[in-house]
Design a protein that fits this description.
This is Iron ABC transporter. By secondary structure, the chain is mostly helical. It has helices at about 1-15, 25-45. Helix 1 (about 1-15) crosses helix 2 (about 25-45).
């Protein structure tokens, strides 16, 4: 469910919020990459 929402949100940002056309995968990577790093760091601290 979260993955689908991330993809829909990324598509919305890629189509409307940015002044140039950007592939959805780029927006998804920009949002999902730092979140993945956060999850990895949090898992290693416990």
């Amino acid at each position: 469910m979260v993955g689908a929402l991330l993809l829909i949100g990324s598509d919305l940002i890629a189509r409307t919020a940015l002044p140039i056309t950007v592939p959805v995968g780029v927006v998804t990577a920009v949002i999902g990459g730092p979140f993945l790093v956060y999850l990895l760091v949090r898992a290693n601290l416990k």
